[in-house]
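Technical annex B. To support the medicinal chemistry partners, we prepared a structural model of the target in complex with KG4, based solely on the information shown next.
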Amino acid sequence: DGRRVVLGIESSCDDSCAAICVAPTTYGEDIISASSERLRNSDGEAELVSSIVLKQDHSLTSGIQPLIAANSHAASLPHAIVAALREAKSKGFIASITSPVEIDAIAVTQGPGMGASLASGLGLSKMLSALWERPLVYTHHMAAHALTPFLRTTTTTTARPHAPTLAFPFLTLLLSGGHTLLVLCRGPRSFKILATTNDDSIGDAFDKVSRGLKIDVDWASTSPGAALEAFVTQRTEGGEQETEDKTASKRWSLPVPLKNKPEFSYSGLKSAVQRQIEELERVHEGQIPDSDRRSLARAFQLAAFAQLESKIRMNLSSEKQGEAIKALVVSGGVASNEVLRKRLRGCLDDMGRGDVELHFPPISLCTDNAAMIAHAALLDYQTTFDLTRSPRAKWSLED
Ligand code: KG4
Ligand code: ZN
């Protein structure tokens, strides 16, 4: 009926995910030819039918352990897949869970990620491919992240009248606990990594500094990074944000490293903050006044974002393709930071690039999920009945 239905399966890290997405058969061509007029027509969009994410219990182990993760996928992925099918059935997209003839293909993450975890998703996908006689689409996890903002039905765009729809080429900043990446996206298979981190991720720096400053976190509802932002935002009575920013940055003079290099680095910043905390604890005999904690947190946040701003400036002004870029997509947990959102808008306007739209996909689509896998397959529909392909634990976005 002019539409495709894809079941996506994702198991590259520790979350067991399954999702069902549907899009017109012309979806990929429409986006590549980037006729905004056609894209604006809401019939042309991809739609998320169901998306299940089963998280692993980390309370018994510290961090992610490959063997435990793989065992956990073996136990959880079947449930995730059945749950995604059930939801699709309850919404009337498929008539039967055991033989869902409406499903056109099974998309699965082939890499990058942990080998044994990937193998779990690949095994189940191949089983379903053989059973249902439907092809597979082998998908790149990071490419799927980068293409997610096209799932526009649920993406929030900075409110501007007549905002153009997203089109290639665009820049994407992926800022999470695992990644700190600036990527140029030229097409569904054409990516250029403009900057990645040399050491720690930006999310990890937020987590460590938040903990170092003993900022309270309600783990059930928030993260250390979000708690740090909230802590900084409780401003001193009558304080002017801009003046406070300047004072804080001057006072602590935290490093913004590698100014002209194409890399991010967060370990130097993290240890510089740690040293300041130790010094303050010494001076105040363990009880750092709130005003100092807040000021240091503020300076850290600004220094962390300054690196991102400088790389965006570098690439938008120096790259030949800078002119053609009309959008900057910011995703991952750190992208929910309001200070970052404002600073990026200010940075672009300041460069005379008010024409560059900022897009912030919802966080549920930025953390690992299978909706992005099914969606990437709909956008770049390369099917195969080859069941012999194995996990690609290391797989660059540029290959
Ligand atoms: O993408 P994400 O939710 O998941 C993983 O990486 O697994 O990213 C989580 C990271 C954490 O380091 C968290 O502290 C950080 O994003 N984060 C924030 C904010 N909200 C979450 N960092 C700064 N400001 C925020 N508002
Ligand atoms: Zn991911």
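Notes passed to the chemistry partners:
The chain has two domains: 3-155+364-379, 170-360.
The chain has a mean pLDDT of 89.
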